[in-house]
Amino acid sequence: MFHTLLSAQPRLKPLGLSTLAFLLFAITFSTTALAEKNAPKEIVIVSEAWEDATEKDGTGLYFDIMRKVFEPLGYKVKTLTTTYSRSIYLVQTQKMHAFLGSYIDEQEKVLYPYWHFDAEQVSAVYKASVIPKWTGEESLKGKTVGWVKGYDYNEYITTSVNVREVKSRRQGLTMVYSDRLDVLIDARSEIEEEFEQGYIDRNAFAVSNVTDLKLYPAFTNTTEGEELRMLYDQRFEVLLKSGELQAMFDEYEWDYFPFQTQ
């Protein structure tokens, strides 16, 4: 009787290879989908390489600020350094999410936030024989003035000048030194860094301040860029009011803190 009952039980068919393959695929797909869902979102930020601000290895104050803004929101921040003009191109063509160091409304096809992350002194480098007495921006009138391609300083000075873009700061300084250019305009910090390389006589030049310009990140002109801009402004204000931003500037021994905290 017992043997008969056992014999009456239906036998399970072994799974075929195709069924096993399908189950394995389903499990793998589900696991991968879950991992992708839980993985941090990625934002790629591109910039020209600036000492202590946007280093090639991903360190620097500006890159650290971006991490402090976005990583607590679940983003993984990746960085890339290239020329300034290429940084602009990569964001305008939506290949990267944001570039750093732009002046407000400097470029088209990008989105600007409310908050700047720094400000720079824009200075003029020239020979004293070309401008014997500096009287401000009006001293540039009628001069042949150069700057690194992509910076578009003509948008921020009102004096009429003859513009000549250069490929690099080295080229610009060399042209001023050899009297092929009257004035080179650039950020004061970048000018001093260039002098420190020692390839040209610092004493041959005078350096005077032209204006101060705030520096912004510029985001892609997309729905995602709109969201990133909104998140940046929200988080940046939190960092500013909490004192975390000031602490970062202090840690890097930055020249000055371009924000009112009162």
Automatic annotation (TrEMBL):
The keyword Signal applies. It comes from the Bacteria. Keywords: Signal. Residues 1-35 form the signal peptide. PANTHER family: AMINO ACID ABC TRANSPORTER SUBSTRATE-BINDING PAAT FAMILY PROTEIN, MEMBRANE-BOUND LYTIC MUREIN TRANSGLYCOSYLASE F. Belongs to the bacterial solute-binding protein 3 family. This is Uncharacterized protein.
